[in-house]
Design goal:
Shape: rod-shaped
Number of strands: 5
Number of helices: 4
Largest sheet: 5 strands, mixed
């Protein structure tokens, strides 16, 4: 190769040297750009992996939020169903509650006297509790039928309190005060 350069003139040698230098500089620039690009590609790959991991976390969170949303939607439907089927309608007043109590009294063979009603707001302006207190004298079988009838009742009506006032002179008869609680909404 050295012999080939000796055949060239001085001007051709300078031109070849300049071309070689330009090619060497261009090669260095290309190598530097390749190294820089490789580093940028590595950072971009790391950023992509981090973004994918972040996306997976967000996707799981979104699925969890969707499940929560669906649970709340189902709960609202259940509440609407309960309000429709289990609560008494507040627009009718206490008419339904009184009729249900009378049916329960009739089914258990009971003659209740002095039924008093008290009202309590549970959720202000939405749900109200009505307590019906009454006294009666009966035997344990009648009390058991009464409690069974209330337990089997379809609406939110439950026995809140049973007070044994006294034993009467009649054998097996007891004097009781019972409180039932019913719920209605406006």
């Amino acid at each position: 190769m050295k012999d080939l350069f000796e055949l060239l003139t001085e001007k051709e040698r300078r031109t070849a040297a300049v071309c070689g230098a330009v090619l060497a500089v261009a090669a260095c620039v290309l190598i530097a750009a390749a190294v820089k690009t490789r580093g940028a590609a590595g950072r971009a790959t790391a950023d992509l992996r981090a973004a994918e991991a972040s996306y997976q976390v967000l996707d799981r969170d979104r699925d969890a939020v969707r499940k929560d949303w669906q649970a709340w939607t189902n709960a609202q439907k259940d509440l609407a169903s309960l309000k429709e089927s289990r609560f008494y309608d507040g627009t009718k007043g206490l008419q339904d509650l009184r009729l249900d109590l009378q049916r329960i009294f009739d089914a258990s063979g009971l003659a209740a006297t002095d039924v008093t009603y008290t009202y309590t707001d549970l959720v202000k302006g939405v749900v109200q509790k009505v307590t019906a207190d009454f006294r009666f004298t009966a035997n344990y079988a009648v009390l058991k039928r009464l409690l069974d009838a209330v337990e089997r009742h379809a609406r939110f009506l439950h026995v809140e309190r049973v007070d044994f006032l006294s034993m009467t002179k009649q054998p097996g008869a007891i004097d009781l005060r019972v409180s039932f609680a019913g719920y209605y909404e406006y």
